[in-house]
Amino acid sequence: MCVYVHMYLKKADTYRHTFPRLFSLFAAYTAMLGDWQFVFQKKELIKTPNKSNLEGKIIVMTLLPQFCRIYYSALKTMEQLENLYLPRVSQYRFCQIMIENLPKLREEIKEISMSDLKDFLESIRKHSDRIGETAMKQKQNNLNYGRNMHLGRSRILESKNEITLKRTFEDDDEHEEEVLTAQDLVDFSPVYRCLHIYSVLGDGEIFENYYRKQRRKQARLVLQPQSSMHETVEGYRRYFSQIVGFFVVEDHILHVTQGLVTRTYTDELWNMALSKIIAVLRTHSSYCSDPDLVLELKNLIVVFADTLQGYGFPVNRLFDLLFEIRDQYNETLLKKWSGLFRDIFEADNYSPIPIANEEEYKIVISKFPFQDPELDKQSFPKKLPMSQSVPQIYIQVKEFIYASLKFSESLHRSSTEIDDMLRKSTNLLLTRTLSSCLQNLIKKPHIGLTELVQIIINTTHLEQACKYLEDFISNITNISQVSVHTARLYGLSTFKV
């Protein structure tokens, strides 16, 4: 085809001075045809790779990026030829050949740009988890859990129990990493180029529909979890990273293109995804009986939600879901502490605690708030009225409060709401879990009258200690007990043995 056109162009050389602009466009056209034919010949070699094709691969890899940059100028040249110059000399045979081939050239340009777009879509599908992981890691590094909660942890005396929130994403580098954006991780030029070419050719709507259709398909794949996702935190992490990566890309496309995606489109896509995500998390989290894993899942959901919220996506439903998961978390804690209470009761000898000296006495009262002025006047050795299970139970109740607090943090709730959550969960521990353990204890055959009397004494001291647990919670949340919103620990008063 190129040789044929050159032949007629040679005949048209006599018109060089009559139509100088037309002649230069003819020359550009034939050069364009030659380059086009060369590139397509070399691209065909890539489809069946072997050693003899190495030269073709190198040439195409070198030439094609430069060739892509002339898409627009090629289209403009063809437009000028078709609309301005060729109609003036349409009686010539070589002009008819050019007119016949212009639509084919336009289609070839569209095919090349569409091929690049398909490669781009495949690339972001494979690497969306890396994009999302980077975005979530940046958000994780910026989160300040304590600032949102206003928790007065500095007032807590037991420094060994101070809460340290586990980082969901660990940064292996000692130095702060450079902040990366989606544009740093992904080459979006195929999208811009293809959109521009289709728009110039009047097929912008076709391209828009194709892009959105393909991305919807990818969204459905991203939202499909692995069946074993609930077994490890890594399964959840990978799931969230892929979703974040998908929507980070869409947000970038939204802001750098005009009309390819719209806010209405992304909101619709997000609402569809959010319903699917909530259903998936509700199902998979129900399989988990490990409170530590549930807590890690909660931390991941918080980072996931905060990351997407930073890109303008509404996430209130995710935080509502966290309240459902919080109830499940508390249930797993209650089961765990039920086992701890049973072990403590099994190991107790149900005899008053013997105190040999002042040092032993200080150790006991550092664990349990016991006060008895009459007993203080007695000389050593002496005995405390409760058995050894009482300070151990008291310590475990405080540990439960700490564990419950870990889930309440970073939920964007007020200190008053967190205080209420802690008191309600602690009341459940006392009235349901501890009560049940005590009821089962007194039914055991080895519990005689002496042991039963000691259990009653123990229960009385634990009930009296509830006011200290209330102070403990108030110190954590910085909410005064005189507040009208503060719930009371009715605890052990509801189950007299």
From TrEMBL:
GO terms in the biological process aspect are:
Golgi to plasma membrane transport; intracellular protein transport; vesicle tethering involved in exocytosis
**What Gene Ontology cellular component terms go with this record?**
exocyst; membrane
Q: Where is the Exocyst complex subunit EXOC6/Sec15 C-terminal domain?
A: 318-496
Q: What Pfam families does the annotation carry?
A: EXOC6_Sec15_N (PF20651), Sec15_C (PF04091)
- Can you tell which superkingdom this protein's organism belongs to? Eukaryota
Q: Exocyst complex component EXOC6/Sec15 N-terminal domain spans which residues?
A: 71-136
Coiled-coil region(s): none
* Transmembrane segment boundaries: none
Q: By what name is this protein known? A: Exocyst complex component 6
